[in-house]
Amino acid sequence: MSSSAIHGVLARYEDPASLIHAAEKVRDAGYKNFDCHSPFPIHGMDDAMGLKRSPMGWIVGAMAITGGTIGLALQWWTSTIDYPIIISGKPHFSFQAYIFVTFALAVLFSAIGASIGMLMVNRLPRLHHPVFYSDSFKKASDDGFFISVLSDDPKFDKAETGNFLRSIGGNDIEVLEG
Amino acid sequence: MKSSEAYVEEPLLGGTQTFGSISSSVSKIAEQKVGPLWYAAITASGSLTLLLFVSIGYLVWEGVGIWGLNNPVSWGWAIINFVFWVGIGHAGTLISAILFLLRQKWRTSINRFAEAMTLFAVSCALIFPGIHVGRMWVAYYLFPLPNQMSMWPNFRSPLLWDVFAVGTYFTVSLLFWYVGLIPDLATMRDRAKTKLRKFVLGIFSVGWRGGNRQWKHYELAYLILAGVSTPLVLSVHSVVATDFAVSILPGWHTTIFPPYFVAGAIFSGFAMVMTLAIIVRKIFHVEDLITVRHLERMNKIMLLTGMMVGYAYSMEFFIAWYSGNIYEQFVFINRATGPYAWAYWTMITCNVVVPQLFWFKKLRNHIVVMFIASILINVGMWFERFVIVVSSLANDFLPSSWDYYSPTFWDISTFVGSFGLFFTLFLLFVRFVPIIAMSEVKGVLPEADPHHGAHHAEKGGAHE
């Protein structure tokens, strides 16, 4: 890597309340590519940052329908097309008995969709990220609350953004470079 | 929560907790050098695991004849142990999924290791149907795989549903557990000192940054996982119950089985969580995170589910009488007075009488009492499955075919060995993985509420 490209600015806040108020101000100042890091999710932060609702529901919904369809189709095809055989006098397509496997596959696909989908929407695994240039950022998973503004934000300016984050209560302003 | 302003909620955690103190007291457990106690424990459980593998090896070599199965009792300890272990797993999912949906904040201290317990219990459970099929090298017949006979499994059979139920259950539990672990692994990654720990934890924490853009998806994904796990867990033991209920054997052929099995599963699972929680909080000094208040709430659930199980026992008797079916009547009278009466009354004592202790607040809060009770309940729940499986098979319609069933050495060694596997996995878990969901416990601290300062004067433990 080139010795010191500037990737963004990081500021630390004292507690969830000051983080959420700062997030509102960053949003109102027109920043787009910023994030609020905290050791646990903070209620109301989505609104404070101006984020839309997560699309996870749609992803999982589609996966559930896929799984259920595969489950039912598998049972229908094996018992009526591929090897029709009468078992205990029941119709080939005994759909009442096929409900459970259909349901189980719908759940299985939903759970895979929810976990893998969550990682994909979050662009994870991503082991390398500008915020990790900061040593104090280690606190973000312990008891630290941070706002990061990345340099590809159209409003980003190394000095001005840092001053702005300080003016809304940020401490230990750090430029992310590496 | 305007309506409850007069009610000051007791703080869940003991001592003075901060976000930092939670990180350190939980992470420390997996970071510190383990003491001789851990090595002694894993030596013991590892030896039992070896016993399990030896027992399975001998079973493969010799066949299911090494077990005590006889002509009427062709389903013995293997299925009892399977139902026992799957049942234990259910409490983990109940705590992690159902209590999550019900917004029960006290679950946060116990959900991680309850979920781990689920995984390990289901792993133990999965062994038994795998090995009890006799010719286990064709166990793949269970799955809908194209094969040389071009035949498919019978999808009308609950035994086949069971394959899907338990397989799905294991996978979903694993995913749910791992998704819950990601933020905590990131906490441990950021605390890591050695290169190896940084590397391994870095990989498993997938580069989690705790940004709200990630939390947003994470929270919804977690909610959905809880949402899909809830009907799944209720269905898994219902399907296990239908394995029995769709047969025509008196004592099995009852419609009460699915809800009765689910209640029993939760009952036994909570007892196992209790046993493990008491040991873990003592050994690792997390009494302030897993407090007596958590344990008391689990005791209340055990009292409730114990009563449900007791209701099911009496309802089975009532229906046997009310149905006018003499075979059904015989089976239940035979259970209570016949050759397996000793097992039946062990079951009643442990499952119905013992939980009644928890009516008393003093006993509900007494560690020694609840520890002993939790072990007795698990003994009782094992005997419940024994009574159901064996007494119905041993004395069926035709007295000339009756026989008394008793286990052999290999039955016992396989079962004891499965405990070895369970505890080995659990010991490895407490050694390497954060045993308490740190990010979730932090989230229920009063300080985690962004409006904490504003409401502070009104109520002690501000929640929501």
Fold and architecture overview:
- The complex is a heterodimer of chains A (178) and B (464).
- Chain A is an alpha+beta fold.
- Chain A contains 5 helices and 4 strands.
- Chain A has a 4-stranded antiparallel beta sheet with strand order 2-3-1-4.
- The mean pLDDT of chain A is 90.
- Chain B contains 16 helices and no strands.
- The termini of chain B are close together.
- Classes of the chains: A alpha+beta (178), B mainly alpha (464).
- Chains A and B meet through helix 1, strand 2, helix 2, helix 3 and helix 4 of A and helix 1, helix 5, helix 7 and helix 15 of B.
Amount of beta strand of chain B: under 5%
* SSE sequence of chain A, one letter per element: EHEHHHEHE
* Poorly predicted parts of chain A: none
- Overall geometry of chain B comes to globular
* Main sheet overview of chain A: 4 strands, antiparallel
Order of helices and strands of chain B: HHHHHHHHHHHHHHHH
How confident is the prediction overall: mean pLDDT of chain B?
89
Gyration radius of chain A, rounded: 25 Å
- Output mean pLDDT of chain A: 90
What oligomeric arrangement do these chains adopt?
heterodimer
Q: State the low-pLDDT regions of chain B, or none.
A: 1-5, 455-464
Number of DSSP E strands of chain A: 4
